[in-house]
Amino acid sequence: MAGYPTERLAASGTALFVGNMLGDERLGDFSLASRAPEILRHIEGGEEFFALPADQREDIRAGFLAVVRRWFGDPDQTSAASTLQVNLAKAVGRWLCLPGPAIVCDAACAAGQTVIDVAVRYLQDGTYPALLACGVLGNLGVTGHVCFAKLGGLSEDASTPLDARASGLIPGEGAGTVLLKRLDDAVRDGDPIAGVIRGVATRCDGKGKAIFAPSSRGQVAAMHRALEVAGMRPEDLDYVETHATSTPTGDRVEIESLKQLFAGRPCAPGSILLGSVKAQTGHTYSAAGMANLIKVLLGFQHGVLPPTHGFTTAQAAMKLAESPFLVCTDARPWPRTEGRPRRALSNAFGFGGVNTSICVEQYDPDHHGGGAGAGRANGYRPGAAAPTPEPMAIVGIGTVAGPVLSDFVFPCKRYRIPPTVLADLDRAQLLAVVAAGDALDDCGIDPEHLREAGVFVGATCGLEANLTRNFRIRMVEYAAALDEVPAFRALDPDTRERIVASFATEVRHRIPPTRENALPGYMDNIIVGRINNLFDVRGPGLVVDDGTCSFGAALDLAIRYLRQGECRLALVGGVHANLAPEFTRLFARWLREGGHEAELIPGEAAVFFVVKPLSQVGAGERTYAIVQDAGWADTGAAVVRPGEPFYFGADGALRMLDAVRKVAGSAEGEQLVGMAQVGDRRNGYRIRLSAEETGPAPAGVATAGYLVGDTFDELLANLARLVSTDEAGLLAHLPRSNGHAGYRLGITYTGRQDLLRKADLVARLLHTGHR
Questions:
Q1: Do the beta carbons of residue 18 and residue 24 sit within 8 Å?
Q2: Each residue's pLDDT tens digit, 736-748
Q3: What gap in Å lies between CA 488 and CA 491, rounded to an integer?
Q4: I need a labelling partner for 42 at 20 to 30 A (CA). Which of 70, 348, 614, 664 fits?
Q5: Each residue's pLDDT tens digit, 577-618
Q6: pLDDT value, residue 725
Q7: How far apart (Å, rounded) are the C-alpha atoms in residues 419 and 599?
Q8: Is 533 exposed, middle or buried (0-12, 13-18, 19+ CB in 10 A)?
Q9: What is the DSSP letter of 200?
C-alpha cells in the first residue's frame, strides 16, 4: 500500500518495532517436547510400568517419544531462531533487509499502540527516517485460555463490546503494520498518507487494586496527554475507537474514563461516536491497538464512520444517554467539520495497567500546509522545539544478581504480597520488585516525582512461570500421546489409568493449580506492572526484548522519553530469571546458530538504575555517573564474556553496573559499555559513561591521596569515617598499615565537598558490590 519494496526500506535506514505478548505456541510446544523424558522417568518409577514385560516397556517408551516429537517437534532439531520470542522481530527484519534494529515491545494488550508511541520517539529526534510498527498476536494456545478463564474473562458465546449483554471476550489473532514517517518527509517523497498522528501517549495506572483490574486513572492520563500533545480539546474529536473488549467491568471503566475526560466540555448528547472493532475480530490482545488504529484509518479513507456490530443497549451503569457518547451501530457518512479534517482518538489498554492513546486525523494538504510543520505528524505541538541531546545522570542503583540466587527470599511483608499469591508469580517479577525498590530507596526520590517516572525493562521474553504453567495445564496431552501408542492401548484400562497417574500426581504436587493470579504471574510485561503498582509509578512503561542487547534498547528508549518530556525520571532495568533447562539450552543453541561458541554460564539478575536529565539533578542529589550518550551503534563487544555468568536480556545491565563502578571508583574519566547482537557483533548498543559532564576541568588544584585497610571491611570502615567527617585533611590522618595494606583506594579531589562526594559515591558502590 505504501509503495515501499524491500530495497527501498533497506536503503532508507528503516527500523522495526513489534508489539507482542507471549510469542507464539512454538516455545510452549518445544518445552513439552523437552520435558517428555521427565514424564518418562515418572512413568518408569511406577510399579505398574515396572511390572510390564521389558519389550512392552520399550515399545511404550519409544512410541511415546515418537508421538511427542511428531506433535511438538524434535527438541534436538528445533531452530532457536524460529522459537524465541525476539525473533518475531529479528526474522522479519532479516527478511526485509532492514539496516536498523528490530525489537519486540511488550505492553500486553496495549502493545499494538504502545509500539506506535515507541516508534514516534525515534522519528521525533531524527534517529530514523522511517519506521515499521507492527502489532501481532499469534498465540492462541490453550494455556492462556485456561488462565484467562480463571479470571472470568472469557465469553461463552459472543463478543458484544459496550453492550449490556457483554459477558467476556472472544480471543482473536492477527497482525497489522503501519509505516511511519515525519509528515514533511512523506510529502516530499510523494508517499500516500493514510493519516496524521497528532498526539500519542502512554501512561500507567500506578497503585491500585489487583494487577489485572482496570483503572480510570491511567486511562484518563493517557488520553489527556495524547490530546495535550496534539493541541486538541476533547470536543475536537468526532469519534473514539475504544479498547472495549466485551468484559463488563472493563467496558464500564473505559466509559467512566471517557466521561472524566469530557467532563465540563461543551459537547451535545450523542455528538461523540464510539465503537469497538472487537465485535468483529474478537480481542486480538497485543494486536488489538493496531486493529483499532487501522479501522480508524480505513474510516478516513472511505469517509465512513464504521459500525460496532451486535450492539443493542448499553449497561445501565454507563448512563450513556446522559453523556456526549453514542455507540455507532450502522455505517454512516463521516462528515467533515468546517476548518479541520476528520479526527479520532484510539485507545489500547493492557494488563498491568499500561494505557496508550493516539490522536489521529485525516491528511488534508490544505490543512497541513503541504507538510509544513512536521510536528503535526509526529506528536509535537506546532512550534515546539526539537529535543536536545542532554546527558543523563544515574542517581540510584539497585541490584540482585548471581549465577543462581538460591538464598533469595522475597520480602512479602514489605511489599504486602501474600504467600498464596507469591506461589503464582514468576521469579523475574519478584527480583525486579526488590531491585527496583532498592534503586528508589537509594536515590530517595520524592513520591510525587515518582508518579511522573517511566519504567523501561530490558528482558529476554518468555518467563519460566509461563513454561511451568504450560506444563501443568497441557500434561493431559502426554496422556493423549500415550493413547496413540499401540503397546499402551493394549493394557487394561486400570493399568493405563495408574500409569498416567504416576506422572500427573507428581506434576500436580510440584506445580500449584491454576488460579486467578496465574496469568499475570507469567506475563512478561507484568515485570513493569508490579513495579508501577507497588511504587505508584504512573509514567510510560514497557518491557523491551532485543535479545542480548535488551538492556541497551531499554536505556536507549528511556533516554528518548526523558528528553522529549514524557517522564521526569526513568527507572531502567535489566531482568532475567528463567533458568529452565530447556530455555537455557535453546538460548545457547541460538548463540551457536549465530556463530558464538562460548560456554554459557546462566545467571539470574535484576539491576535497576534511576536516570534523570543532568540539568534536573538537585544540589543534594548524588550522581553515580553521567550517561553522555547511548544508542544503536557498531560495536566489537563479545556477546558472551568467557568464564563469566551470562544474564540473557539483563546482561547489558550488569556490564553497565561494572562500568559505573569503574567510573566512580577510579581516576578513569570515561567508560564505554558495549552490547552485541547475536549473529552480528558489529551492531548492538554502545553506552558512554563519565564521572563528570564533558567540559572544562573544574577550578582548583587537584589533590591525591590514598585510603587503605588491611581487610576489605577495614577499608569500608575507614571510608565511612571519611564520609562522616567535616575535616578536609582527614584523608592523610586515617590509619595506615605498615606498608603492606591489603586494600588501597586512591582519590583525587579538588576540595572538601568534592572529596566527600566522591567518598560517599565509592562507599555506596563498594557496599553494593560487597553484598
A1: no
A2: 434 445 677 777 6
A3: 6
A4: 70
A5: 999 999 999 999 999 999 988 789 999 999 999 999 999 998
A6: 57
A7: 37
A8: buried
A9: E
